[in-house]
Amino acid sequence: MTIIVHHLENSRSQRVLWLLEELELPYEVVRYERDRKTMLAPPELKRVHPLGKAPVIEDEGRVIAETGAIVEYLVEKGDGRLGPPGNRDACLRYRHFLHYAEGSMMPPLFALLVIGRLGILGKPALKPVQGMLDQHLDWLNSELATRPWFACDSFTAADVMMSFPIEASRHRGGLGASRPHLIDWLERLHARPAYGRALAVGGPYAYA
């Protein structure tokens, strides 16, 4: 059965398309555009899942939400490819970064987005929130100084999960040449053929 991906433009759901391309699993895309004033997802997504957010996939009668849960589901469906490495320490890193991407990296990035929209009212919060994000970026850069990918010496689904917060950090979080290992990692991601195929399928994506 073909997996249906409910895909919102310029969103976390681009990672799902990318992983499907990496795993070579059959899928179809239902596209949604953001509201041009609020930049929120359209109400049509609530017909798929009550929270009305993307990504959401449908497969074999199941509706699955949350990017991390979807990634774990797809890795299992793909016979474990790009999943947890066999080495215990690498496996623990894999699980850490799979959840860290949304649990730790996205909150300060989202806060920066809100602060930016507040204009002068958000200015007092900018420095401390940016400082929080800088701590993350410095640590991540040091992690990639010791190995080429986040979990181990080979590319895994943990790298797919980490792509969105790192891309967003480069776009609006101050990530630049001062953290060369992160930039090199990001450039290697963008050079992967499956990444390019996913972009062609998903449509406009501001962070590529």
Automatic annotation (TrEMBL):
Residues 87-208 form the GST C-terminal domain. It catalyses: RX + glutathione = an S-substituted glutathione + a halide anion + H(+). It is an enzyme of class 2 (transferase). Residues 1-82 form the GST N-terminal domain. CDD domains: GST_C_GTT1_like, GST_N_GTT1_like. Keywords: Transferase. GO terms for cellular component: cytoplasm. Its EC number is 2.5.1.18. The keyword Lyase does not apply. PROSITE patterns: GST_CTER, GST_NTER. It holds the Pfam family GST_N. The keyword Zinc does not apply. One of its GO terms (molecular function) is glutathione transferase activity. PANTHER family: GLUTATHIONE S-TRANSFERASE 1, GLUTATHIONE S-TRANSFERASE-RELATED. This is glutathione transferase. The lineage of its organism: Bacteria, Pseudomonadati, Pseudomonadota, Alphaproteobacteria, Sphingomonadales.
